[in-house]
């Protein structure tokens, strides 16, 4: 199973919802200018939401209430929220969030992507302010620690290749949302003698890198396995949704590129799975990585790549 999160601009929420219903059915329920749901599709509910919780959850009303302004309900509030939505949409993405779907149905998701493209949706490269991404939530094949460790190692070993291949936008590279894993954590995980149990794997992640803002966010998965342990750590608790899935946050959203489709980032993910499943290739890649120059030199190489792109 795979779930989709697609960040775009240049299109209104209703039009995004209509792209969903045209492919997988369902009914449109506009809860506010910031949140529209498509309910009862073939695969479950989709959401179209402005990626700013202060607006989506109407927390913008709190400071107004403190000075005696109560917007209440009705046309006045709806008009103000529509205006806020349009202004915020200049820099904050609209996000299409899909339910888990069989990976064999990825073509249906791509049909939605194509309709959004045809409707004029804008992606990562359309503005220097658009640090927009495509995020995939891929159901794990197992909760066994050896499998999870192999997948984590494979991702860390593929990471620089993924950066090169995906040509990650500079705005996204310097944003706080997909920062590289710390070199000391990478070295710790790739150490040949590292054979953790599941509790140690989670504890080490929380000790070295207690944030969801990584290109592969493991906190939803770890919270599914041991929610109390994760929520006791200094992490972004209100943003973590426990689920048995890898949260792959790295790819750009190139929805306005006619040559781009969802198969490209998906096939990149499959290359991670293939490496993780090949024990000999994984060991060879690990040995090669650990014999490379140190973290500073790798950082400089990445920085120079960013300047050239």
Task: List strands and helices in order, with pairings.
Blueprint: E1 2-8, H1 13-24, E2 27-32, E3 35-39, E4 46-50, H2 53-56, H3 61-66, H4 75-88, E5 94-97, H5 106-118, E6 134-139, H6 145-166, H7 170-174, H8 183-190, H9 198-208, E7 216-217, H10 219-225, H11 227-231, E8 245-248, H12 263-277, H13 279-290, H14 295-308
Antiparallel strand pairs: 1-5, 1-6, 2-3, 3-4, 4-5, 6-8, 7-8
Helix pairs in contact: 1-5, 6-12, 6-13
Key descriptive features of the protein:
eight-stranded antiparallel beta sheet, 8 strands, 48% helix, alpha+beta, disordered C terminus, 309 residues
Low-confidence stretches: 52-71, 83-90, 303-309
Strand order of the largest sheet: 2-3-4-5-1-6-8-7
What level of helicity do the residues show?
Answer: 40-55%
Question: Structural class from helices and strands?
Answer: alpha+beta
By DSSP (H or I, 4+ residues per run), the number of helices equals: 14
Radius of gyration, in Å, reads 21 Å
Bin the strand percentage.
Answer: 5-15%
